Request: fold
Amino acid sequence: MASEIVFLITEQRNKQRITLPAGSYRFGRSAQCEYVLRRNNVGEVQFVVACTKDGWTVTDSSTECATWYDNRYLNQGETCPLQEGDVLGLNTDGNASTQEITFRVEEIRTAQSGETGLRQEQTDNAVLREVDVRRKKRVLIGRGDDCDIKLVSDRVSRHHCEILYKDGHYELRDLGSTNGTYVDGARVTGTVLRSGAVINVPTQVFAFSGGLLHYHEHKSGISVQLLNVYKTVKNSNTGKPLNIVDGTSFEIEPNSFVVLVGGSGTGKSSLLTCITGTAPCTKGSVRFDGLDTADNRNAFEAVLGYVPQKDIMHDNLTVEQSLTFTAKLRIAHDATRAEINAAVAHAIEAVDLTGREKTLISQLSGGQKKRVSIAMELLANPRLLILDEPTSGLSPDLDRSMMELCRKLSHQNCTVLMVTHNMSNINLCDKIAFLGVGGVLCYYGAPEKLHRYFDVELTSDIFEKLRVPEFIEQYRQQYFTTPEFNRLVAAWPEAAQEADKRCSQ
Reply:
């Protein structure tokens, strides 16, 4: 049977998927190429992807710009095999520290009959939109039907903000919104827009350049990139600096369910506070959808839902009353009673509590109370939901039920990150981040590969190994050789700083 290869192409925040049936395909600047790269520093023919009798290969063909291949540059004329997970990259701006365009091999499969030639499609994650403010003169943003850009979120006010073009200047005005409008990380009521400004309203980011407003129409949860993240505190015994998160780098993909695991002293809670921003990292960066959260923390609060380990709710309220009061605090003040009731009903249904609306919180089981806590966060339509030990104290059947709920939520336009120490139902998540003592990331990958990676039969043996400094360093460096890390470095070269330092010692 004929073979075909699927690439996910990422250029900054734009993503596109292409499928190549068996054949030979040139990628480069020349109009004769099957895939044209309209960039000055790309070769006439940069590289060639071909299906041979031995499988798919890539050959570097350029004298102008080196082709990045799984954490190294190819020599001119060099041919290498392609497998699922491999990443090609190009630094088209001439800066060797960045890979502006990446091509990740998503799948190699049997070709669909009757289809020939390169096929392109936009990814489902985000559709790129563009609005010309110069032509429209006024662009109204909000959740109202009369808005030029309508956002589907109850945290967005009906008329949230507007952008005006007058006398050669562009001005942004917040229209008294409940949850605010942010420009370059600062909340504003009105400001003159400069080219290159980043505008945030709840659940949406806009880039303004040359009179054009660019944004992605998201249909999924957000991605999270942790790049060389450190959290350093003062050692209470010695007075010297102590890393409690030690050079952690990994990426959480949109709409995935990721579990953060580790024993005592492994920095799980500290890493969580770096992601949520309650205690930012000392060094490195945390990014949401590729944007650094350090200077945009307030603007990103609207996309983040956080469920603490301890439930915070009033026992003398019913489920419906508790969620209604929460909705009035969380969503826009101009929401109608019907919109509030709809949001509450949707949250109750999402956490499988239909039929418990009139039940007092005090009469719920521990697992049901945790579901109410999750429903409170879902009222704000988060695109990233973080849960701190939600299965703590639950019976085995309720533990599995909670894991199944988190998996379901990750399939409903929400990325889910859970901290847990319970490994009994870990197979329900997409990926595991396993930490060793000292906040060292020792594994990031699929749950079914966990035991082979650590060369153990029992999960408890992993916890024991990751208390021993020699094993911790061994598995840290082993992670640097995995496809997950190589894919991250191809897109974000700064993630390799810790790997370069460790491997050079």
Q: What stands out?
A: The radius of gyration is 24 Å. Residues 396-410 form the longest helix (15 residues).
